[in-house]
Write a structure and sequence with these properties.
Blueprint: H1 19-36, H2 39-46, H3 50-64, E1 69-72, E2 75-78, H4 80-107, E3 113-118, H5 126-137, E4 142-147, H6 150-158, E5 164-167, E6 176-185, E7 187-191, E8 201-203, E9 211-215, H7 220-231, E10 237-242, H8 245-253, E11 259-261, E12 271-278, E13 282-290, H9 297-308
Parallel strand pairs: 3-4, 3-5, 8-12, 9-10
Antiparallel strand pairs: 1-2, 5-13, 6-13, 7-11, 7-12
Helix pairs in contact: 1-2, 1-3, 1-4, 2-3
């Protein structure tokens, strides 16, 4: 057992003249010879001719400028330099094996991992229902769940940190594939004592002079809100910004403004939701992934499951 060094970790130089790049193909061969202390047996283990293995170890010694093995007939013994190198090689090979196992585990069709990003407003109902349905058929698949605003999720999707994203609005970019799943109506939420609270329906232009509360810029819901207000002929005067729909609902209840929000799962005291007749305030929700990037079996299985829920992702009003 070799103890890890207390020295700080330094990444290997991988330039064309680096020792790591030049020596890497020979290190596992050297380790096999060192473990068995027998070149012929090591060659049999590696499935290569014994003369080829002998030449490989000799080249390694020549490149390092030191003797790693002391030959004693058909057997070999490690020199002091050989023992020093073997310690590092064993640690490197063990770490490489762990990395390979983790990489294989990610793609395991039975128990692999899916990194899934989604909107905050989808986290209370739609996403748990998706996961419950998928896990009924794939009980061992693991999930990394990320809630964030659309721009940040798409950045992480492109960087490979996420496999799939549930987003609104759908991205229009050549490097991303997006498939619509459902539409969700957005209501104008007003305080219970608001002058329009007794109405059931409203045109968005009727609140052009009202203060708005909205999610911060960069969030998909903010882009959609600004777009609908522009369709109605005005720019919303945003008095307060937040990150969560329920926080915004609380600000509305406190009389600090009005907001365009998805329907509340549980009725919120102090607010009234009004249907907007003009424009048609619905947002498209869809699934996005990187175009052309291979998907591991568990990710592909989850993508296909989510796409099969098209038109049934949300409860319609």
């Amino acid at each position: 057992m070799y103890e890890s060094s207390s020295q700080p970790l330094h990444l290997a130089d991988l330039g064309q003249d680096s020792s790591a790049l030049q020596l890497a193909p020979q290190l596992a061969q050297f380790a096999a010879v060192a473990r068995l202390e027998h070149v012929t047996q090591a060659a049999q283990l590696l499935g290569m001719p014994q003369p080829t293995l002998s030449r490989a170890v000799a080249r390694l010694e020549a490149e390092l400028g030191v003797d790693l093995l002391a030959r004693q007939g058909r057997t070999v013994r490690l020199t002091r330099a050989g023992r020093l190198l073997l310690g590092s090689v064993e640690r490197a090979l063990a770490e490489l094996e762990r990395g390979a196992e983790q990489a294989r585990a990610e793609a395991d069709p039975v128990a692999g991992r899916v990194a899934f990003g989604f909107l905050h407003t989808m986290g209370t109902d739609a996403v748990p229902a998706l996961l419950r349905g998928f896990r009924a058929e794939h009980p061992q698949v693991r999930f990394q769940l990320v809630q964030d605003y659309v721009a940040a999720m798409l950045e992480r999707l492109r960087a490979g940190e996420l496999d799939l994203c549930l987003v609104a609005p759908l991205p229009d970019a050549s490097d991303l594939t997006a498939r619509p799943l459902d539409e969700q109506r957005l209501y104008l939420v007003v305080p219970a004592d608001h002058r329009l609270a007794g109405r059931r329906r409203i045109r968005l232009a009727e609140v052009a002079d009202e203060p708005f509360v909205a999610v911060e810029e960069g969030y998909g819901l903010r882009v959609i809100t600004d777009g609908f207000c522009a369709e109605a002929g005005f720019t919303p005067r945003v008095a307060f910004e937040g990150e969560e729909a329920e926080t915004l609902r609380g600000l509305v209840a406190a009389g600090l403004g009005v907001a365009l929000l998805p329907p509340a799962l549980v009725p919120r005291p102090g607010v009234v939701e009004l249907e907007v007749t003009a424009p048609r305030t619905r947002r498209a929700i869809g699934l996005a992934w990187v175009t052309g990037r291979p998907l591991t079996p568990p990710v592909a299985a989850f993508r296909d499951f989510v796409l099969s829920r098209r038109g049934r992702l949300l409860d319609h009003d």
